[in-house]
Amino acid sequence: MRISFLPLFVLVLPLLEIAGFVVVGRQIGALATVGLVLASSVAGALLLRHQGFGVMKRVRAEMDAGHDPSRQLAHGVMIVLAAILLIIPGFITDIFGLLLFLPPVRDLAWRMFKGRIVLATNFSTGGFRGRRREQVIDLDDGDYSREDDLKRGPDHNSPWRRLKDD
Hints:
This protein is an all-alpha fold and about 170 residues long. Helices cover about 65% and strands about 0% of the residues. It has helices at about 5-30, 30-65, 70-85, 90-100, 105-115, 145-150. The radius of gyration is 27 Å and the shape is elongated.
């Protein structure tokens, strides 16, 4: 029998956060506690913006080099989770959020969970560079006109089918 700790965690976390507010409020005062909570929310939003753009640049660099960007994508997901944890009011979630912003902690989490996570990608061993691209035909304005098409009539052997005009 497998026990799910998620419902228990959802019930216990708010109680722990309230206890954290009480402990911190006793030490530094109620107004300073509210200020810390607001500052952590603003910091979470700012860090999400700054770190998020950095992760997107690294994902793009991995893709341009023809490498699998799954590690960088996982880091991006963890940064979003870290920012959400910072934005949520509470000191316990802030601690976990700040820890997730640290790259060594994200690397440790990636090593622990990468065997359980399946990322579906189109990356082969050759990456983008090894794949054949579709052929593109570029026509100038004089290369094609609708009048020429109407004079010739429909090509029934063409793989392209035209719908009747209204």
